[in-house]
Amino acid sequence: MKRAYVNPDLCIGCGLCVSIVPEVFQLNADGISEVYAETPEDKREEVYEAVDSCPVKAISIIDEDVPAEE
Ligand code: SF4
């Protein structure tokens, strides 16, 4: 299972990812983007578009089947 992840230390809150895939990204109370839902099957391309479009490269796709390194 792949899931989008926003690095809150990098995000500048431009809102671009939210406008591209509002089903997955939202701005939190601090004005920083966060992933609030799993990527729907039919929104994968849009999520990759958001990854490519983010001006500070704050979005990554992580594979939840692979344990994160400690
Ligand atoms: S596109 Fe990047 S910088 Fe802009 S809100 Fe989304 S994660 Fe943050």
Quickly list its features.
70 residues; alpha+beta; Alpha-Beta Plaits; two-stranded antiparallel sheet; two-stranded antiparallel ribbon; binds iron/sulfur cluster
Broad CATH class: Alpha Beta
Structural shape: globular
Proportion in helices: 10-25%
Oligomer type: single chain
The structure class reads alpha+beta
Please list the strands of the largest sheet in the order they lie side by side. Answer: 1-4
Name every ligand kind in the structure: iron/sulfur cluster
Counted by DSSP, the helix tally is 2
The tally of domains stands at 1
CA-based gyration radius: 11 Å
How would you portray this structure in words?
Helix content is 21%, strand content 23%. The protein has a two-stranded antiparallel sheet. The two termini are 20 Å apart. The chain has 70 residues and is of the alpha+beta class. The radius of gyration is 11 Å and the shape is globular. The protein has a single domain (2-63), classed as Alpha-Beta Plaits (2-Layer Sandwich). The site of iron/sulfur cluster has 14 residues, from helix 1.
